[in-house]
Amino acid sequence: MNKQELIERYKTKYAEEPKDWKHPSVNASRQDLFANFIRDLKQLDEPQKHVMPKFFDKWVKQVLEKRDKFYAISLITRAGWGYGVDYELNYDRAPSGTKELLNWIVENEGDDYPNKKKATEALLYGYEVEKEPLYYVKLPVVYFNHLDLETYLMKDDRGNITIADNNDFDDMKFTESEIKAIDERYWAFAVPVEEVVER
């Protein structure tokens, strides 16, 4: 909300208020109006936290280990004009993982670089990291004692990967990278968590 929106909101609100301010119900209405005004005033031009990709968060942590957020902002703002976001970050090793960030920052460059603005605001006002989608690894049906059992990949109490047919769905959720780290072939059986109806 900006200042002009707040002004217009209360112009409309005051225009709707009755002229007889001495009536008890009108006093209560004035108190409510004042309380709402203060609440809205506190939110005036309060920046919203952006939800940022994981690769952005990883890069920010890497930069902040060696420099400050204003250095990171300078890397972001000049990105795309012959510069990458890894310039002067690592003298001793080749850039890693920054190509994805650079491509994201300069994406939609004809539209005034919206991701560049978003990344700068995230560094200034804080941000949240987007959550990775979770998957179940639903394995092909197993026939056991004339029963069709649905089996899933799961983590046991010690964190080991096992196959189970129980319905303890919390231990069966994996990210894409976790699944591929176990075995790339399991990715073919991955089903997004939202698609599986829990019993």
Give a structural overview:
- The chain is 42% helix and 16% strand.
- It is α+β, with helices and mostly antiparallel strands and 199 residues long.
- It folds into 3 domains: 3-42; 50-129, no CATH class; 135-195, no CATH class.
- Strands 5-4-3-6 form a 4-stranded antiparallel beta sheet, covered by helices on one side. Strands 1-2 form a two-stranded parallel sheet.
- A hairpin with a 5-residue loop joins β4 (147-155) and β5 (161-164).
- α4 runs antiparallel to α6.
- It starts with a helix and ends in a 7-residue tail after the last strand.
Topology:
Elements: H1 3-16, H2 24-42, E1 50-52, H3 54-66, H4 69-78, H5 98-105, H6 114-125, E2 127-129, E3 135-144, E4 147-155, E5 161-164, H7 176-182, E6 190-192
Parallel strand pairs: 1-2
Antiparallel strand pairs: 3-4, 3-6, 4-5
Helix pairs in contact: 4-6
Could you write a compact summary of the structure shown?
The protein is an alpha+beta fold. The protein has helices at 3-16, 24-42, 54-66, 69-78, 98-105, 114-125, 176-182; strands spanning 50-52, 127-129, 135-144, 147-155, 161-164, 190-192. The protein contains seven helices and six strands.
